[in-house]
Amino acid sequence: MERPILEIIKNIEEIPTLPMVAMEVMTLSKSPDVSIKAISECIHRDPPLAAKVLKLANSAFYRRGTQEIDTLHRAILMMGLNEIINITTSVSVLSVLGTRDKGGESLRIKFWDHCVATGLIARHVDKKIRMKAQGREFVGGLLHDIGKIIFDEFFHEKFMEAHALSIQRKCSMFEAEKEVLGTTHMEVGHFIAQKWGLPPYIADINLYHHQPGNAKFKDITSLISIANLLAKAKELSCGGDSVSFVLKDQEAWHILRKMGYSMDVLDIERITFEIEDIGEEVKTYLSAVSEEPVAEGANG
Ligand SMILES: [Fe+2]
Ligand SMILES: [Fe+2]
C-alpha cells in the first residue's frame, strides 16, 4: 500500500528549516519577560535577516512618520516588540518559502497575492471590529496557507491535479486535496508551523481556518477565516472555491459575535468597496519583502 502523503512529508529531509536565529527569536518571544535588548541582539546575529527586518520596518507598508529607522533597537522602540517579532516571523518564513514565481504551471504568484491580501484584509477587519490583534492578524493571514507551498514544492503534479479538480467541481481546495493527495494544506501547514516553532496561534490558524469552531485561538482564527473568504471574493484566490458567500452564514461570524465583537459593522458591500485597492497594497508589500522587483502583472 502507498504511504500516506502526510507521513512522507514528515520524513522529507529536504523540507526547508527556518534560519536558526529566527527560531531563537520565536523561542524568546514566548517568554513573558523578554527584553528589547535580547531580541535585537538575537536578530543581529543574522545580518541578512536584520537588514531585511529593518528594510521592511522602513517600507511604506510599516513606516510611521518621516524619520528613517536606522537601528533595530530604534525600530523596536518605535514599533513595539510585538511588531518586530511579527516582521521577523514574516520575513524569515517568506525567505524560506520564496515569493518569486517558479515559472511554468506554478501558482506561486497567485498564492502569495492571496496570502498577502488575506493578511491585509484581516488587518482591515481587525480595526473595524476592534479586536486589537496587534499585527498578529497580518502575520496570521500571510501564513495561513503555508501547507499549499509544501504541496507545490514536493508534490507539484498532484497539487496541480487537485487545483484543476477544485476548479472543475467548484469545490474547495481542501476537498480536492483530500481526494487527490489524501491530506489537506491545513494538516500540512500545521505540521510545518510546529516543526518551525512558529507561534502557536499560527499553527492553530493553519489547521482551523476552514473550521474555526475547533480552534484554540478562536478569535484570531475566525478573523482569518473571514479575511480568507473576502480575499477570494476579491478574486485573490488560488483555487476553484466559490467566491459568493453570506457573511452571516459563516461559523466565524457567529463565533466572533458570541465573543462580543460588533459584527454588524461588517457589511460585505462596504468592505468590498473599502478594499478596492488591495491589489496595489499587495504589490507594495511583496516588493518590500522581495529582493528582486515584483514581476509585472503579478496582481492581475
Ligand atoms: Fe486554506
Ligand atoms: Fe486561503
List all distinct small molecules, including ions and cofactors, that are bound in this structure: fe (ii) ion
CATH superfamily: Hypothetical protein af1432
- What's the pLDDT, averaged over the residues? 89
What's the main sheet like?
A: none
Overall structural domain count: 1
CATH structural class: Mainly Alpha
Distance between the termini: 43 Å
What is the H/E string?
HHHHHHHHHHHHHHHHH
Radius of gyration: 19 Å
Oligomer: single chain
In DSSP terms, counting alpha (H) and pi (I) runs of 4 or more, how many helices? 17
In short:
The chain contains 17 helices and no strands. The protein is mostly helical.
Please characterize this protein's 3D structure.
The chain is mostly helical and 300 residues long. 62% of the residues lie in helices and 0% in strands. The chain is built from 17 helices and no strands. Helix 7 (108-129) packs antiparallel against helix 8 (136-142) and helix 12 runs antiparallel to helix 13 (200-208). The longest helix is centred in the middle third of the chain and has 22 residues, at 108-129. It is globular, with a radius of gyration of 19 Å. Residues 114, 118, 144-145, 228 line the site of one fe (ii) ion.
